[in-house]
Amino acid sequence: MTSARDLVYGELRRRLMSGVFLPGEHLREEHIAAELSVSRTPVRSAIERLITDGLVKREGRRGAVVLGWVDRDINEAFELRLLLEPYAARSAAERATPEQIDHLEQINQRMLAAILSDDTDRVARVQHCNNLFHHALLDAAQSARVRTMVENLLDMPIIIGSFYFYTHDDMLRSVEHHRQIIAALRARDPGCADIAMRFHLTTTHLLFRSQRKPPADPSADTRADTPAA
Predict the structure, then answer these.
(1) 108 to each of 21, 23, 184, 198, 200, how far by Cα in Å?
(2) What is the DSSP track for 15-29?
(3) Upper half-sphere CA count for residue 93 (Cβ side, 13 Å)
(4) Structure pTM?
(5) N- to C-terminal Cα distance for the chain?
(6) Longest dimension (CA), the chain
(7) CA 116, 118, 119, 120 torsion: positive or negative?
(8) What b/e sequence results for 197-215 when a residue is b if at least 16 CB atoms lie within 10 Å of its CB, and e otherwise?
(9) What is the percent of the chain where pLDDT is above 70?
């Protein structure tokens, strides 16, 4: 059952993030169970996890309803990260302790181990390690102001599950990007750290955009901002 639950959760999360399910759409357990050839129990469990993630909400008799994350929200989050995280990387190159850099290396090794594993929850583990890496880099920047501004962007529900889009090679590339950032920190090279982080985030944003389903018409994003009746 654990395997079925994780597989259903991963598939539903991928669809939500790619825009297959529209904001305000009702997630019908029986339809999803039939489509994925599982019982309703793992579907119900997966939906509860999505509610905890902030991607779905309970709405009276309608049951589980998709929340309204639109492309504008996602693009804005990445644009703000591109402004702030390269600066954090520059600061980390100047201020991080050797222990903090070693900690980043350890997190990245855990991320690689998760990628190479055969566990059914490996994508969740990879995503968790990636999130830890970016938070640890903020710690290494040693700027409470930057951390306050960036943490909410890192923890946006629609952003936090980006690895559900990734192929195996995409995940390995992300680990390599992290290695380049760590190398720049060890070299105490702020300019290189800035470039490495900027490249990493730009690549992530492009991958995210390539997986998003285009709106049905030019006014779709505007309608999605309006709560469903």
Answers:
(1) 32, 34, 15, 18, 14
(2) HHHHTSSPTT-B--H
(3) 23
(4) 0.74
(5) 35
(6) 58
(7) positive
(8) bbebbeebbebbeeebeeb
(9) 90
The Cα–Cα gap between 78 and 197 comes to 12
CA 70 to chain centre: 15
151 vs 23, residue with greater confidence: 151
What pLDDT was estimated at residue 164? 79
Pure H helices in the chain:
2-18, 29-36, 40-53, 71-95, 98-116, 122-141, 144-154, 157-160, 168-186, 190-211, 220-224
Which structure tokens are listed for 19? Answer: 């825009």
The CA–CA distances, whole Å, from 162 to 16, 128, 165, 185 equal: 11, 11, 6, 25
Could you tell me the two tokens for 97? 């302790």
Hunting for tokens 């903090």 — which residue is that?
100
